[in-house]
């Protein structure tokens, strides 16, 4: 080297900013450099609302929290930003600019330059103004189509990531145990395998787009007594292990979810937020989860206020931290000054703070938030003039044609035809009576976590932000030559009878009466379905059953259409309606999907993810019950549903035949294979949903009469047949045995190939042989399906 040549010395960057160093080394160095207050600052969030003018986000004033002083908080750093898009209506581009400017301030204010991790809701689409409102999760379950749900998750994740969001608070993996619970619409169904596979597909979609998926609510929330929100959960360890936990296990193992949210409820006196055996012992030590555990909103404070197991905020913080909750959401309440003081005076070990901090910083490092080239400007604003906010308005479209097409596909696959006496598809009626409270209501297709119903209702002067055609609109387009007369009849839950006479008169003068009933989504009693909107009985809200019964007394054929968040008993309509069409809050394209089924443009393929009760008072009841849970001579209450789990009709006919089982016996560590033929013997293309159930005639502990262990969709043209092959591992017969361990027992199994839990088409018996075998979370989880065309005769 020439000594006269000057060598420019590049300043060394801090170890934690060096992407060439391992994440572990970077995080360790950063933790070592932090003060206690800087550590705890990474463990809480601040609830903000993005500015519609593009300025910095402002703290959201919530009635459960005190005001937050950002100037005082930010110098020590900030772990999370809570719902920047899901708090107030804001143009997406200006929201993205507001978030970027807020992140710039956060990073510039703390001495390590660490930005916050931004999270938002995405239960049925990105919960932002102007974003696509997809069908609710109960509709995802009705599709029995994990591939389409995976594509939907990826689309939602891409939209969130494009505007600067890192984490999505979804999916809900609670298994329905009582349909009176208000949050049934947020669930995927009443079967753990269906919930697990569909929920895992959604997680895979979100994570493929770079969004941290958050599994909730861990665990037992849906098993609350009497279906009441936040009520205690009365499940035993076997029900918890075999019904409630498997979806979470699957989504972590196969979905790659990077976050878990605790449930509000307590089980046998132990709140989930304080349950070390659950949040650390099972989740981390057994399953190997290495992501973050975030608190459901206010759940740590609830340890003091609702559960009464902490005397003060510091006690609540220490209990939750010890159990394994890493991040307090939505705001700082317990993990700020109370936690720091408890550590300083020795009540809480600093090692627990470091444990949670390591997980939080590792996630931030993996997201690129510690890199020296981190840029607060999201991809959707690349190349934009950020100094001219007014010019940005309308630049970002979160509801483009591809999104809407995907939303329609999900909605179409989720429509369930419950009954049909031949009235459907409608044969070009001249006069249609369109009746009921949801016939001409734009928001009747939306769940409670959609932006218009969750946030927009508090801003009545703000446009919806998305197109929401009513069923009146889409039927007018579907039947352009028909005369459509609309009469509301009654409201959703007002009990008003004054319009029923008019509705009946309109029906008398029509060729067919379409009565559109169901729910209004809302929060905490502001709706008939949604969080805090629990039902005393599964009777249609308000005077809707009265309206329905009045119409059934007429000679005009009645087609009952349901836009709802839960299943309802329909009384006489089960037998007397010409047809019943069930849709669970199908999203912004939902009325197009329903109109297509009514006209026959779409052949329905949806299947029930929850049973429809015959009577309103037989809850809790699901198909997944032991023998004593079903109808018997020792009780006058018959919980047999009107329409069973997995049920759904088509406009074509499917025949199942020629079952062959490769072996009559298989070892407890082996597998067996079944092949059979499904043929479309009707006159139009359609999709059959093959469902695989196991029945264990004699087990060491009580088992459900049957349980779903696999399913596949079979698409067939008229006259076409496919040979379906399914390989069933013995692991699928495992359950929690007498000693609390999961076991595969030798003995006979009945394998049911069915069109629903009440419609067995083919049955095989296979005997498992050999020794009793214990399995764990690494067991095989799925049957393997394959399809081959059958030559036409």
UniProtKB/TrEMBL annotation:
Ranges of residues in domain Fibronectin type III-like: 688-757
SUPFAM superfamilies to which the protein is assigned, alphabetical: (Trans)glycosidases (SSF51445), Beta-D-glucan exohydrolase, C-terminal domain (SSF52279)
Pfam families: Fn3-like, Glyco_hydro_3, Glyco_hydro_3_C
Alphabetical UniProt keywords: Hydrolase
Gene3D superfamilies listed in its UniProt record: Glycoside hydrolase family 3 C-terminal domain, Glycoside hydrolase, family 3, N-terminal domain, Immunoglobulins
Top-rank taxon, per record: Bacteria
Any one Gene Ontology molecular-function term assigned to this protein's record: hydrolase activity
Keyword Hydrolase: yes
UniProt KW Transit peptide keyword: no
Cross-referenced InterPro entries: Cellulose_deg_GH3, Fn3-like, GH, Glyco_hydro_3_C, Glyco_hydro_3_C_sf, Glyco_hydro_3_N, Glyco_hydro_3_N_sf, Ig-like_fold
PANTHER family named among the record's database cross-references: BETA-GLUCOSIDASE
Record-stated family: Belongs to the glycosyl hydrolase 3 family.
Protein name according to UniProt: Glycoside hydrolase family 3 N-terminal domain-containing protein
Annotated source species: Streptomyces asiaticus subsp. ignotus
Lineage: Bacteria, Bacillati, Actinomycetota, Actinomycetes, Kitasatosporales
């Amino acid at each position: 080297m020439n000594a006269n040549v000057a060598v420019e010395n590049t300043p060394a960057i801090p170890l934690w900013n060096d992407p060439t160093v391992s994440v572990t080394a970077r995080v360790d160095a950063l933790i070592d450099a932090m003060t206690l207050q800087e550590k705890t600052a990474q463990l809480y969030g601040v609830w903000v609302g993005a500015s519609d003018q593009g300025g910095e986000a402002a703290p959201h004033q919530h009635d459960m929290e005190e005001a937050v002083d950002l100037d005082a908080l930010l110098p020590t750093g900030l772990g999370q930003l809570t719902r920047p898009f899901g708090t107030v209506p804001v143009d997406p581009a200006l929201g993205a600019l507001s978030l970027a400017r807020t992140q710039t301030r956060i990073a510039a204010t703390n001495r390590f330059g660490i930005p916050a991790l931004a999270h938002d809701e995405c239960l049925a689409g990105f919960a932002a103004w102007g974003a696509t409102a997809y069908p609710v999760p109960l509709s995802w379950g009705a599709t029995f189509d994990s591939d389409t749900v995976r594509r939907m998750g990826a689309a939602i994740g891409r939209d969130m990531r494009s505007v600067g969001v890192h984490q999505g608070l979804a999916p809900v993996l609670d298994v329905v145990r009582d349909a009176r619970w208000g949050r049934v619409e947020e669930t995927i169904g009443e079967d753990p395998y269906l919930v697990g596979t569909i929920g895992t597909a959604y997680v895979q979609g979100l994570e493929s787009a770079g969004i941290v998926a958050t599994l909730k609510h861990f665990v037992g929330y849906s098993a609350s007594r009497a279906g009441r929100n936040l009520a205690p959960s009365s499940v035993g360890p076997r029900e918890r292990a075999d019904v409630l936990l498997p979806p979470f296990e699957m989504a972590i193992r196969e979905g790659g979810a990077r976050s878990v949210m605790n449930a509000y409820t307590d089980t046998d006196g132990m709140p989930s937020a304080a349950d070390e055996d659950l949040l650390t012992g099972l989740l981390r030590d057994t399953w190997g989860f290495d992501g973050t555990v975030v608190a459901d909103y206010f759940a740590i404070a609830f340890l003091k206020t609702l559960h009464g197991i902490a005397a003060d905020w510091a006690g609540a913080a220490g209990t939750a931290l010890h159990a394994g909750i890493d991040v307090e959401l939505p705001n700082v309440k317990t993990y700020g000054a109370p936690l720091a003081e408890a550590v300083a005076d020795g009540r809480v070990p600093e090692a627990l703070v470091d444990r949670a901090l390591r997980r939080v910083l590792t996630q931030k490092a993996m997201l690129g938030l510690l890199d020296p080239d981190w840029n607060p400007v999201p991809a959707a604003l690349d190349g934009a003039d950020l100094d001219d906010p007014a010019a940005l308005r309308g630049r970002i479209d979160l509801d483009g044609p591809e999104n809407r097409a995907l939303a329609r596909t999900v909605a179409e696959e989720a429509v369930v035809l419950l009954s049909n006496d031949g009235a459907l598809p409608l044969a070009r009626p001249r006069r249609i009576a369109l009746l009921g409270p949801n016939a001409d209501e734009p928001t009747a297709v939306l769940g409670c976590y959609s932006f218009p119903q969750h946030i927009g209702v508090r801003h009545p002067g703000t446009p919806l932000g998305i197109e929401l055609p009513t069923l009146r609109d889409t039927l007018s387009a579907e039947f352009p030559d028909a005369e459509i007369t609309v009469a509301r009849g009654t409201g959703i839950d007002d009990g008003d009878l004054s319009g029923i006479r008019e509705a009946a008169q309109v029906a008398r003068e029509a060729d067919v009466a379409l009565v559109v009933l169901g729910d209004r989504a809302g929060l905490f009693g502001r709706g008939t379905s949604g969080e805090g909107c629990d039902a005393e009985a599964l009777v249609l809200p308000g005077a809707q059953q009265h309206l329905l019964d009045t119409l059934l007394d007429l000679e005009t054929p009645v087609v009952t259409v349901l836009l709802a968040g839960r299943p309802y008993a329909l009384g006489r309509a089960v037998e007397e309606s010409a047809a019943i069409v069930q849709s669970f809050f199908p999203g912004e394209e939902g009325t197009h999907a329903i109109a297509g089924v009514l006209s026959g443009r779409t052949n329905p393929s949806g299947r029930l993810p929850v049973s429809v009760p015959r009577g309103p008072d037989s809850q809790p009841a699901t198909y997944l019950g032991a023998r004593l849970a079903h109808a018997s001579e020792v009780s006058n209450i018959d919980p047999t549903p009107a329409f069973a789990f997995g049920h759904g009709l088509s406009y074509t006919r499917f025949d199942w035949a020629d079952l062959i089982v490769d072996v009559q016996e298989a070892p407890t560590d082996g597998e067996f294979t079944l092949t059979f033929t499904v043929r479309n013997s009707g006159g139009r293309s359609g999709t059959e949903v093959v469902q695989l159930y196991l029945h264990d005639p004699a087990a060491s502990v009580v088992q459900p009469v049957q349980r779903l262990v696999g399913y596949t969709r079979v698409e067939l043209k008229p006259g076409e047949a496919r040979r379906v092959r399914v390989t069933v591992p013995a692991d699928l017969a495992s359950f929690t045995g007498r000693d609390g361990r999961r076991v595969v027992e030798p003995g006979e199994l009945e394998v049911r190939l069915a069109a629903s839990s009440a419609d067995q088409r083919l049955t095989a018996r296979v005997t498992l042989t050999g020794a009793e075998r214990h399995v764990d979370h690494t067991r095989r989880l799925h049957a393997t399906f394959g399809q081959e065309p059958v030559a036409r005769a």
